[in-house]
Amino acid sequence: MIGRRFWVADGRRAEFEAVFGLGGAWTRLLSQADGYLLTDVWCESPEAGQYRVRDFWSWHRNYEIFRARFHAQFESFEEWLRGERLVEKEQFLGAYYEKSGGGEADLVLS
Question: What is the C-alpha end-to-end distance of the chain, expressed in Å?
Fold first, then answer.
């Protein structure tokens, strides 16, 4: 699982949710990669426009392969986000994988 936090620009929450939600530009990009499962998006703080985005992969190496194979598209997407001023700030929270097939208690920060 890849976790990130975003602070969305004022008045742009609906656009952000459309971009990162089911069928949005982000999930369409990730869907091209082997091992991508789903993206989970939720608003942590409506007042601050703060969102959490978690991308789930079947294996942690699939994300690394995606980043290598789709590097140009990933960078174009990030550049587009900045250019559109949809996001004011982004924070990478970590890349986690399951240590032994257990639950959330078995997640290990990579």
Answer: 10
| CA gap 85, 80 in Å, rounded | 8
Give the Cα separation of 81 and 74 in Å (integer): 11
Q: Which residue carries 């194979």 as its tokens? A: 69
pLDDT digits (tens, 9 = 90+) for 33-66: 999 999 999 999 999 999 999 999 998 889 999 9
60 within 8 A of 8, measured Cβ to Cβ: no
Distance between CA atoms of residues 98 and 86, nearest Å: 32
**CA–CA gap between residue 105 and residue 101 (Å, rounded):** 10
Query: Which helix H or strand E contains 102, and what residues bound it?
Result: none
Report residue 75 as tokens: 């960078």
How far, CA to CA in Å, does 10 sit from each of 85, 86, 109?
A: 10, 9, 32
Better-scored residue on pLDDT, 42 or 99: 42
E runs forming strands in the chain:
2-8, 36-45, 50-57, 87-98, 107-109
